[in-house]
């Protein structure tokens, strides 16, 4: 994945957030850093702190180091690095964040079993009904944000740590008036790694989204520094 992203172009750097992975992730990254010290970056954390907190750490790192556009994506090749420029293009033409979407015209899933397809589409419909967001793939995890979006959101108020994190980020950005667009992608079943989906993550998404919507009537995601 590191090689594939770097090959997209000189403007793309990579940040890996590693929560003490037992598979030697950090060691591999450090080895690659020797060849590309200015383009490959690593945050090492102790313990499993959750997907959402890893993204938040990455966003804060990107803001601190002056990046104008920040992507999030899976590292198992479900998301194609060649799609990075396609997600970036709309942000250079008036949009604030773009979503690599499976469920808009031209989007697709590849090698998915029927039960996973049903679960994903059902979750997307549920989220749209509760949040009223006009986003067809609200659980998508392939996103490009303008720096301004992440600076305006109070990232410390993002409470979800599982896959519902993706929903809360989109909801907070849109509630603050930022414009989104869905870019069709083909989401392939993972080439490497195993899924971290669990009953707790599913429960967080079901009940958490409802609580998030209710709280939005009285609480703002806006950062006090923006």
TrEMBL record:
Q: Which GO terms describe its cellular component?
A: membrane
Read off the InterPro entries from this record: DPM1-like, Glyco_trans_2-like, Nucleotide-diphossugar_trans
Source organism superkingdom: Bacteria
- Glycosyltransferase 2-like domain ranges (all copies): 3-153
Q: Which example biological process does GO assign this protein?
A: glycolipid biosynthetic process
Gene Ontology molecular functions: dolichyl-phosphate beta-D-mannosyltransferase activity
The alphabetized UniProt keywords are: Glycosyltransferase, Transferase
Q: Which SUPFAM superfamilies match?
A: Nucleotide-diphospho-sugar transferases (SSF53448)
- What is stated as this protein's family in its record? Belongs to the glycosyltransferase 2 family.
- Protein name per its UniProtKB record: Dolichol-phosphate mannosyltransferase
The species is Portibacter lacus
